[in-house]
Amino acid sequence: MPPRPLLGLIPVVMVFFQIQAAMPLHLVHHLRMPEAAYGLLFTLNTLMVILIEVPLNTATAHWPHRVSLSLGAFLIGLGFGGMALAAGYLGVALTVVVWTFGEMIFLPAATAYVADISPPGRRGQYMGLFTLAFSVAFTIGPWLGAAAMERFGPAVLWTGAFGLGCLTAAMMGRVGASDADPARRTEDEG
User: Fold this and answer.
1) Are 169 and 74 in contact (CB under 8 A)?
2) pTM check: above 0.85
3) In terms of CATH, what superfamily is 4-30+64-175?
4) DSSP string spanning 47-114?
């Protein structure tokens, strides 16, 4: 049976994948930005990942999983949720900075967490379930976000994104060292 925390990843990853559909639609149709604005914002995200992610991951590598996962999920939710308030290019760029920090903390921590909780003989299965959770989020997230924005408007979508980020943050705040395989911890400590 897959561990419940793997299911808890899905809401925030659905939010993260709003970069695929809802975010560019929002920029162009609701904020009346040129299509190139999305490319510039995506470039900002990419540059941050290239320049900051490795030093950030080095600095946070000793954090407990629950801290990294909760903070990363919260920042992703906060960044995308902030789109409800962002009116101009600088405001949207600030939201990108926030969710990019969340991305840089959450995604590596999630991978490490899954590796740590998996029994040695079942690591491939756990990583497969981890990939499945991302695939489900990628399949549902962009479609659901675009549909929610079309039906209910961007304020509801981005507020919902914040709520889903907070939901995952709360769920991840419950994970702990007891989730990791005791044999693995013994191997690592020895």
Assistant:
1) yes
2) yes
3) MFS general substrate transporter like domains (1.20.1250.20)
4) HHHHHHHHHHHHHHTTS-HHHHHHHHHHHHHHHHHGGGT--SHHHHHHHHHHHHHHHHHHHHHHHHHH
Q: What is the DSSP letter of 174?
A: T
Q: What is the pLDDT of residues 63-88, one digit of tens each?
A: 999 999 999 999 999 999 999 999 99
CA gap 107, 164 in Å, rounded: 16
User: Which tokens hold the place of 190?
Assistant: 């020895």
Question: Which whole-number Å values give the CA distances from 176 to 90, 110, 114, 118, 188, in the listed order?
Answer: 38, 13, 12, 13, 16
Cα separation, 84 vs 22, whole angstroms: 12
pLDDT at 175: 84
65: left (phi over 0), alpha (psi -120 to 50) or beta: alpha
pLDDT of 152 above 80? yes
